[in-house]
Amino acid sequence: MENDTICAISTPLGVSGIGIVRLSGKDTYRIIEEIFAPGKNPKKKKKFKISELPSHTVHYGHIVENGKIIDEVIVTIMKSPKSYTKEDMAEINCHGGIVPLREVLNLCIKKGARLAEPGEFTKRAFLNGRIDLTQAESILDIIYSKTNYGLNIGIKKLKGFLSKFISEIKEKIFNLLVEVEAKINFPEEEDVEKYPLDFRKELKNIYREIERFLEKSNKGKIIQTGVNVAIIGSPNVGKSSLLNAFLKEDRAIVTEIPGTTRDAIIEIVNIKGIPFNIIDTAGIRKAKNKIEKIGVEKSIEWMEKAEINLLIIDGSRKLNEYDYQLLNHIKEKPYLIIINKIDLPQKVEIEKIYNEFQSDRIIKASIKNYIGIEEIENKLLQLVSEGFGEIKGDEIYLNLRQEKKINTIKQYLKEILNENSIEIVAENLKRCINEIDELTGNKINDKILDQIFSNFCIGK
């Protein structure tokens, strides 16, 4: 399987200017030579050897099958080992569109390539030693980044920021292990039940380094995955209008008819580099039918899932029973209360709200007139900062696998700091090194490897 020549469409299917068919493997250039006619006239196909062409060069011509032109293309050649997979590679730049791309892909398969599995190009880059496993995973971070901050985090990991940190930690732990093993093997030289203060001091330093790194990763998680924010309230208080104000477009349907939104609408809003996953929920009220009931249940579910709740109150009317229910519910996690429609005569019992809630969490607004929107955005950023500290852009994002591994290393180090038996210390140091090797992919089983790369799209 790993010696096969693979091919795949590496661009989204649909109408576009360009689409790319990618090949990698030992038969790549034989296949290209059989299907590619360089130059303007495909009928006068020139004999050529790709081995005679320089690597990283681009060539104009046509893809041809039995004298029939399939498409006018540009072929890029990237020779081993200086390619993405460290194998011989080529990319055929076709006209964008489902038909030409699939025709070229099918022809490559006819000539001996096979369709790549999800993430197989990146998997080969890992297996061939071009990148480690954390760098391979960072490619997904880049693909799914929601803001420039998130993109920068992905690029940092791809360049080896996480790999470098982990490598340095491994070296320090390995040096400590060598010292411990020496004491075990030559007990007459030292009291094996104790180890010197500088050894314990170095352990504490490594432990603190990992703690600081994990703190940065918590901030990085916000940048990469976003903060879930639920907009909640009774029907027709301005929930969908607030979503549209964040987006600066009419994404949600806004009408005077209560209950227009019957299911949650989720949009990503970039506020000063931080992605907020804004959930516009159905209005909380007594449901008139089964569909409305499901919508209301989903709204309550989203309130519980969200990190922050934005409760909108209609300032032009008195509080109703559902407003009171929601006011009681939002106290459980970070919140903002928005008194909307301040452009209308006010009837809401504002004193009751101020008496029970922090004044800096209450914002008066006229959402349809864009009054108060900037204050709401600034307060959202403030709530994020209160929970995670200042976002500087030097954070690192760890996926669940990476975070679990680093936390396990931290736990082993903590156990070592509380341990007097030098044999147990040595065993836990070995466990730390083993976790690091699994993190970077030096030691990992095929099942976990397949699971990681199955998250990639075909063609990457």
Structure report:
This protein is of the alpha/beta class and 460 residues long. It has three domains: 126 residues, Gyrase A, domain 2; 129 residues, Four Helix Bundle (Hemerythrin (Met), subunit A) (Up-down Bundle); 163 residues, Rossmann fold. The chain is built from 15 helices and 13 strands. The strands form two sheets. A seven-stranded mixed β-sheet has the order 3-4-5-6-2-1-7. Strands 9-10-8-11-12-13 form a six-stranded mixed β-sheet, with helices on both faces. Strand 11, helix 10 and strand 12 form a beta-alpha-beta unit. Helix 6 packs antiparallel against helix 7 and helix 6 runs antiparallel to helix 14. The protein starts with 5 loop residues before the first strand and ends in a 7-residue tail after the last helix. About 5% of the residues have low confidence.
Short note summarizing the structure:
The chain is of the alpha/beta class and 460 residues long. Helix content is 45%, strand content 17%. It is flat.
Which short descriptors sum up this protein?
single chain; 460 residues; alpha/beta; Gyrase A, domain 2; Four Helix Bundle (Hemerythrin (Met), subunit A); 3 domains; seven-stranded mixed beta sheet; six-stranded mixed beta sheet; 15 helices
